[in-house]
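Records of this kind hold a single protein each, on a pair of labelled lines. With that in mind, the following record should read easily:
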Amino acid sequence: MSRIVGIPSSRVANFLRFQRDPLGFLVDALPLGDVISLRTSSFRPTYVINSPEFIQEILVRQDDYFQKGRSSGVLRRTIGDGLLTSEHETHHRQKRYLTPVFYKERIQAYSQIVVEETLRCADQLENGVAIPMHDRMMQLTLSIIARSMFNTNLDADKAELAAAVDMTIRHSAKSIFSPIIIPFSVPTRGNMAHKRAIRTLETMIYDAIAAAKREPDRYADSLLGLLLDTKDEAGEPITDVEIRDQMMTMLLAGHETTANALVWTWYLLERGPEVEDRLHEELDAMRLKERQTGGRLGPFERYRELTYTKQIVQETLRLYPPAWAILREAERDVELLGQRFVANSSFIISPYAIHRNDEVFGDAAAFRPERFDAGLTEWPRFAYFPFGGGARGCIGSQFAMMEAALIVSTLAERFSFISVEGQGEAVPEPLVSLRIKKGRWMIPRRR
């Protein structure tokens, strides 16, 4: 019996609904079945995948049959052929030389930078003075990624660089799901603004590369130092262009996603006062323990103790996963769990929708971090996957969890954040990653 179900609405209706409200479209498709055919062309059929079993086939067991395709083509305009956009053997090669950047001992060292930058951010907040939370979190995570990955201080340029990242993300998001992709060479207003943003980011990157070549010892423990020491198959150093592509990838994928998740976290904490109270109880208990033992724990030791804080981050990532959709294209005919799919078939996998499955999570729309208590998370492997999975799973997932938990705990020790009146409920905006539409103005209230 086929596990492929045709969607009841017409092709045109599906297209218009998806363009208008992709998240609503994907959530509504969830109860229809395991694999939903969108009734597109027979040459390039499109499916929505809702079953964790099928997701595991695509992302893990038979990933060699698939490529990222259209989404990579659009993102490649900005980040080049870096880890996020490269395919197959090139991707495997890049992942091999980048993996040491995220070894445990490196993450322990990065934790100190996370806390230092977050304390600087906290010192700049004024009690009762509203802030654009998205901008602040973007600048904070940008500073962290620049110091931890590139050993570069961005004090004077954070706002400009964050704005450049925002421009590239917005323009890329419009192109990925557009029926017609305008060539990047066409001098439209959007393309020209996008290219200016890329030049802004490249200036910082190439300046950092030049500095690292002048003072290699200073950059030895950073991603940049690792890249300068990396050799290709012929034993030659990789090119500055490849280094640029990996640095651009880390800039965009390594801070914008975390910034968006943090804004959602502050919003959810405001909406869940009982959760925020329990967070403060954990932080207060930690401070008491530190006083009793005669000293503040190191950043990574604190992170290991922050059980409930980590659950808050995990639950935020369940409700509002930055990677709200994962796209794959079959390079050749493939059989998945007895179902045949022709070459050029496209597949949409939505963690945002799948994480809202009431049959798995029970009252899935509710914000309940205790779902992640040890022993309670007996879900299918791909019922919860905010960092993707398989060979293309997020290489920096452990860094991202550490970073988010330490930022939340460090800021929450001093402040609660209250939304400025008149903004209404937060509306998700599905760009390259999932953010709050129009951002969120919030008021820090000192504890």
